[in-house]
Structure formats: C-alpha cells, structure tokens
Amino acid sequence: MPETTVIYTHGHHESVLRSHSWRTAQNSASYLLPYIKPNMHILDIGCGPGTITLDFATLVGPAGHITGIEPSPGDVLAQARETAASRGITNVDFKIGDIFELEEMFESRKFDIVHVHQVLQHIDRERVSEALMQMRAVTKPGGIVAVRETDFAAMTWFPASDGMTEWVDTYQLVARANGGEPNAGRRLVSWALGAGFARDKITTSAGTWCFSTPEEREWWSRLWADRTLSSNFKTTALKSGLADEEKLNRIADTWTEWGKTEDGWFAILNGEIICRVD
Questions:
Q1: Pairing of strands 156-158, 92-96
Q2: How far apart are CA 125 and CA 128, in angstroms?
Q3: Could you tell me whether strands 139-150 and 111-117 are parallel, antiparallel, or unpaired per DSSP bridges?
Q4: What is the pLDDT of residue 21?
Q5: Taking the model in full, what pTM does it have?
Q6: C-alpha distances in Å from residue 276, one per residue of 108, 146, 185, 204, 240
Q7: φ, ψ of residue 93 in degrees (nearest 5)
Q8: Residue 238, phi-psi category: left (phi > 0), alpha (psi -120 to 50), beta (remainder)
C-alpha cells in the first residue's frame, strides 16, 4: 500500500470542532437516512467528534453497530467517546484508521453502509477513486457506499465583496497546496466511476446548508474568522507563501464584517452519492 497522504486543511482546532459538533445525521446526512435500518453495521470514516456517528447508532438500534474512524490519534476521538458515554450509547466504537487501508483493517468484516462526510476533498486528489475502492471492498454485497462533499466554488453569499472573494480564492489555493480538491462535490460521480461503480449503480443528489439569521451569521462568521487566524489553514497558507499575516487578518476582518450585515446570506452546496455494491 502506498504511503497515505491525508492532510486535513483545517486540522482539529476548536474553531473546526465547533462546526463539526454542530453536524447531525439530519442536517448533514439526510440523503442517507432512508437507507438506514435497524440492526445494520455502519462504518463512518472521518467521524470527527462523532455527532453524526452517534445519530447513526441510535437509528440502527442496540442490535446494530457503528464504527467511527479517524486517521490519527488525538483529542477528537476522546471527545467522541465522551459524548457517546454522556448519551448512554454503547453500540459504537471509535478507532484510528486510514481510508486507504480499510481492506486490511477490516479484512474479516463487512459493513451494510460505508459512509464518508467532508473527507474526500482533503485526501490526495489523485487517489480519491482508490479510497472509494477501499470503501467498496469493506461493504457487503447489497450494501452501499455513501458520500457527501462540499464544493467551495459553488458556495454563494450576499452581499458580494472583494474580501469574500479573496477568502475563497485563498482557500482553494491552500487546499490544493495540501493535495486536496476543494471542489469535490461536482466530482463525486466521476470519482465513483473511476472506482469501478457502474453509472446505473450511482444515485446522485445535492444538499445545502444556509446561514442567514443573526445567530447563524454570528456563528458562521466567527467560526471562519477564527479558522483563518488559528487553524491549520493559517499554517499552510503562511508556509506555502500563499498569504501573509496581513492578508489573513484582512480575511478574518472580512468575515467579521459579513457577520454583522443584516441582509447577509451564505449557502453551501454539497454533492451526495449513494453507490450500490453488488
């Protein structure tokens, strides 16, 4: 197996986990919910703090089981385990695992659903189809591979400003410097075809997030201002020469100002695919 190249553009700074902990199965995996049945076994790749994972665990019931994996040790898995304990959920486990080594990790085990959310955009963009092949390899015949990824170029907002354009342009450069593909949502079908899924086995959809109320704007703008100045995004931007401190401060200020606009509106488009495994 080639050496894994997964560089998470955001890292797990508090400002990043603030966003991840907001995610639920309902607001981030609604396209998948009709497929989840009691007693299923589900693998959740890139589970983060486990909020979606734990929602899956309640849906499959006590006879089902969910496994959440993250590529490296750290506080995020401890947080996931603590949240599971606080909610009294026991049909779940959280492990260190690599999306490129699933077949080796689960060689004697198959899942009804293998799920990934906002992960493929961060892995080596030349190996995404390989990752999907690994996901298919640990899925039972008749099971599904489920993917949801955002598309930064398809994000839209109001009011328009040079500062917001500078932010998204800089983000694209930083993500690509890490080897990822920030416009992943539109590429999901292409990547699935590259992994060997027949086109008639792929069901597509799109989901959105929208932030516009005063509370939503404050949360979303503060989150991105903090990410810009404190997360791995800043580290890569500076190291790669894609931004200096002045530019990053300017982007953070832009986010703060956008959050104060009464007519502010921000929408995120996410590509979604369900791939059926024979």
A1: unpaired
A2: 6
A3: parallel
A4: 75
A5: 0.93
A6: 20, 9, 19, 12, 40
A7: -135, 150
A8: alpha
